[in-house]
């Protein structure tokens, strides 16, 4: 049984942790759009009330026009807060489903960190973004948009960067501290150093900093098919709270 109050709170902190350029509401449907970045989380309709299912075709049509203005395909992010009637409508219209993801949390209050080395976050957003793009093998053209998104985050952030003298950046993590919750974002480990303890060390450093800042619980979102990452997080004590996926018109 999914705890809807927990889902609502995690959804709210997730939106603050990864802010879209344009935010509009249609009833309780939150429409997020960002022209400069193709992230699904930044370009999706997010229904936030299971009881808000009036005029589904009309509202989706209006949302579709907004997405078209941004050059984006209409995309609905389906969570436990999505009205069953909307899900049934998308099913009947044979909307595609993709991007199946897990939302995980871990308790930090009683966590034992061992004797690992403390790592301090860096202050240079540009350096962090360059490393994230390199490790994630993303297009360099995404740098301005990613930099703008990070600079727009209002809660306190910790930018963690691991580097090797010979191969350069090896891992990055963005920690967003929001009251007693800390979100682990943009977590990435270079392909050449995976399964060598780098990811565990980075996650440990990120969570140490979060608890030092007052976080009692950490949360993160990870695609279900990313088995290595899911395994890393589960070993670190993260457990599943709920799942979500994305829907677009057309099979």
Automatic annotation (TrEMBL):
Which InterPro entries would you find in this protein's record?
Acyl_CoA_acyltransferase, GNAT_dom, Rv0428c-like_C, YpeA/RimI_acetyltransf
Which one Pfam family would you cite for this protein? Answer: Rv0428c_C
What terms describe the molecular function in GO for this protein? acyltransferase activity, transferring groups other than amino-acyl groups
Keywords in UniProt for this one?
A: Acyltransferase, Transferase
Q: Which domain of life is it from?
A: Bacteria
Gene3D superfamilies from the xrefs? 3.40.630.30
Q: What protein is this chain from? A: GNAT family N-acetyltransferase
């Amino acid at each position: 049984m999914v705890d809807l109050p927990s889902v609502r709170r995690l959804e709210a902190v997730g939106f603050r942790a990864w802010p879209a350029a344009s935010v509009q509401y249609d009833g309780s449907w939150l429409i997020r759009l960002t022209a400069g970045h193709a992230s699904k989380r930044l370009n999706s309709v997010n229904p936030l009330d299971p009881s808000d299912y009036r005029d589904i075709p009309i509202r989706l049509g209006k949302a579709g026009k907004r997405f078209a203005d941004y050059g984006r395909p209409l995309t609905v992010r389906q969570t436990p807060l999505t009205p069953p009637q909307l899900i049934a409508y998308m099913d009947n219209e044979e909307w595609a489903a993709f991007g199946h993801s897990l939302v995980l949390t871990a308790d930090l209050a009683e966590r034992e960190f061992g004797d690992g080395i403390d790592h301090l976050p860096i202050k240079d957003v540009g350096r962090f973004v360059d490393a994230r793009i390199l490790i994630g093998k993303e297009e360099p053209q995404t740098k301005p948009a990613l930099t703008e998104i990070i600079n727009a985050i209002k809660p306190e952030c910790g930018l963690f960067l691991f580097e090797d003298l010979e191969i350069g950046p090896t891992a990055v993590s963005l920690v967003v501290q929001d009251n007693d919750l800390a979100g682990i974002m943009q977590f990435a480990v270079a392909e050449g150093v995976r399964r060598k303890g780098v990811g565990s060390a980075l996650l440990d450093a990120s969570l140490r900093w979060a608890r030092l800042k007052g976080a009692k619980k950490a949360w993160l979102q990870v695609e279900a098919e990313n088995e290595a990452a899911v395994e890393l997080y589960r070993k670190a004590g993260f457990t599943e709270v709920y799942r979500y996926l994305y829907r677009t018109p057309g099979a």
